[in-house]
Structures are given as C-alpha cells and as structure tokens.
Amino acid sequence: MTNDQKTQIISLRKRGNSLAEIASKLGLPIGTVKSFCSRNHLVAEAALDVESLRPQLSVKDGQCKKCGAPITSLPHHRPKLFCSDMCRLSWWHSLGRADWTIRKEKDGIMR
Fold first, then answer.
1. 108 is in which domain, residue-wise?
2. For the residues 1-22, what does the mean pLDDT come to?
3. 3-state SS string over the chain?
4. pLDDT of residue 110 exceeding 60
5. 48 and 17 assigned to the same domain
6. pTM for the full model?
7. Which residue in 13, 38, 43, 55 has its CB near the most CB atoms, within 10 A?
C-alpha cells in the first residue's frame, strides 16, 4: 500500500465511506483497508452519529437486572445486563426452564 493510498483511505473514512466502498475505489482488498483502519483507529464520522442515535437495550439506565446496581458499559460494546456473574446466574436460575427461551427471545439475546 502506498502513502497516497493511505492518505486516501484516511480522507474517505473521515467522510463516512464504508470499508467496502474504500476498497473498491482504491482497488485494494477489503481486509487490507479494514486492518489499516483498525490499526489507525479510523471510524467513519457517519458511524459515530448512528451510534449516538441507536437505542440502548432494555437495561434501565445502566442498572443490573437482578440487584439494580449501576453498570458502566464500554464504548462500542454491547451493554452489560448484569453487574456480576453471581447476579447473572441467580437471575437465570430464578426463572423456570420453560421461561428461559421466552426471556432470551424477548431480550434479544437469541441469535
């Protein structure tokens, strides 16, 4: 990858172009563009705006589903639902087995 291509990737990514669009415009493999952006912490500006508008999961203001303790989630990660493994396990075990699948589907955990 040339220095010119690197500067083009940076400018295109800042304008909000996707990795696939950048790769096709520059004639590079998408993996090369993706790894360059990842190593240089390049995120599309449009992607930042979408993340701020995306609704959070049904966690009440960052509280544990079992005990209600405050939870802080890492940016760009799925929000945590429980403050600890103990709360997570006790919450799931408090449900009957038949409720597990219904609860998973309702919370969007089933994939």
1. 56-111
2. 90
3. CCHHHHHHHHHHHHCCCCHHHHHHHHCCCHHHHHHHHHHCCCCCHHHHHHHHHCCCCCCCCCECCCCCCECCCCCCCCCCCCCCHHHHHHHHHHCCHHHHHHHHHHHCCCC
4. no
5. yes
6. 0.43
7. 13
